[in-house]
Amino acid sequence: MTAASRYTYLGPEGTFTEAALRTLPEAATRELVPMISVPAALDAVRSGEAAGALVPIENSVEGGVLATVDELASGQPLMIYREVLLPIAFALLVRPGTAIESIKTVTGHPVAQPQVRDWLKRFLPDAQWESAASNADGARLVQEGRYDAAFAGEFAAAIYGLEPLVTDIHDAHNATTRFVLVGRPARPAARTGADKTSVVLWLRADHPGALLDVLQEYAARGVNLTRIESRPTGKGIGQYCFSVDCEGHVSDRRVGEALMGLRRLCSDVRYLGSYPRADHVEPAVRSGTTDEDFLAAADWLTRCLDGRPDETGRTATDR
Ligand SMILES: O=C(O)C(=O)Cc1ccccc1
């Protein structure tokens, strides 16, 4: 297979990321290549060795997966084309024959730890936690004898010759992780009517109400946010950028106008793409913010300039 048909993912084999990737129909015709880290998976796309990469970006317990959020905000630009939601339940994987009383060390991806914290406190209060590069990597390290147990998907047990000692572990009910399929910049995914748009924003200068200014651009156009994260820019204490997801597609007028407002307001805006929502939820579009409303307003302005503002003030919603 060629680079054009290759997708990388946070590996090694047996991660939740791989399970999420395999839910995409196109994965069946791709060469799926596990990588050791999120930056490695994304760099393979940047260098042209792969056409896409699936990486975790957010979970319902702790919010953003910062390695991914930061990686998309820096370096050679990339874009998101798809998202995948996967309900997450962990299994405690051990070498065959291990008794729970003998477990002294446990491992897993750092994002897994807050999802099993209560369980650990209750059943393995004295076990020491060490982070692994991914949940499957933790399973691999247990196979090698480096740790006694790993939190991973139950499906990873067979791959690493382990057995699931306990299954269905999740502190929070309905714990879900969101993954994104990332590629090199090109035209955004087609609008479906149930889409999301992601950007990274750098403010011109820190000032009172800077975040309010950003929010205002969305709020004034009736655009709902689904995630907002402030991340240090690395340029000094107190210097932050914002990583923001909102409902809607860049081709929806209200979203396009909000992005133009942000472009005027901010020193830099990185457009990370518009893509179909995995849950297919369509936005509730507030009256006065439909495409027709924006077009009618632009039309009215043209008529004002032409000296014939005959339908002044009436929007498509009013008619
Ligand atoms: O994909 C994996 O297995 C990972 O290590 C990332 C992760 C961590 C926690 C929940 C879902 C995905």
Report on the architecture of this protein:
The chain has 319 residues and is an alpha/beta fold. The protein folds into three domains: 1-88 and 178-186, D-Maltodextrin-Binding Protein, domain 2 (3-Layer(aba) Sandwich), CATH 3.40.190; 90-169, Periplasmic binding protein-like II (D-Maltodextrin-Binding Protein, domain 2, 3-Layer(aba) Sandwich), CATH 3.40.190.10; 188-286, 2-Layer Sandwich (Alpha-Beta Plaits). The chain contains nine helices and 15 strands. The strands form three sheets. Strands 1, 2, 3, 4, 5 and 11 form a six-stranded mixed sheet that branches. A five-stranded mixed sheet has the order 8-7-9-6-10. α7 (210-219) packs antiparallel against α8 (253-265). The longest helix has 16 residues, at 291-306. It is elongated. It starts with 5 loop residues before the first strand and ends in a 13-residue tail after the last helix. 38% of the residues are buried. The model has no long low-confidence stretch (mean pLDDT 94). 3-phenylpyruvic acid binds at residues 10, 15-17, 56, 59, 88, 109, 111-112, 134-136, 177. Its EC number is 4.2.1.51. Pfam families: ACT, PDT. It catalyses: prephenate + H(+) = 3-phenylpyruvate + CO2 + H2O. Residues 199-276 form the ACT domain. Residues 6-184 form the Prephenate dehydratase domain.
